[in-house]
Amino acid sequence: MKLNNGWLAWGLLVYFTVVALSGICYLVVIPWEYNYHRYQVFDDYLAFQKGLFFRSTTYVPFIRIQHITVDQGPFLRMKNLASLTIHTAATDHEIVGLKYSDATWLREEILQKVKQVENDV
Fold first, then answer.
1. Residue 88: its pLDDT value, please?
2. Which among 6, 15, 72, 94 is placed 20 to 30 Å from 57, CA to CA?
3. Is 5-120 CATH 2.30.29.30?
4. Distance between CA atoms of residues 40 and 57, nearest Å
């Protein structure tokens, strides 16, 4: 049985092209997410704003937060970035493009505010 080198070369070319385009697209998405997604921490809630043309703002009370995760995939790890995901019973809210140290610091700050709100209730 003999492999056709022409098909193998085309297959490898298509594979590496798809991988390269995926990587480039992902590296473009990181700055996009970073520039057009905002968050702000208030005393009783978090505010999330997203969108370039159609903006939406979501307010999440600290009492509704169940847990928080810090995620870092291979492309984010290359840039020392992370995403912070805030889980509620209804949905998840994500803050992307944070430095890893800032994401872990923000996670601890939010957890402290959640504990403070829970103690006040």
1. 93
2. 72
3. yes
4. 11
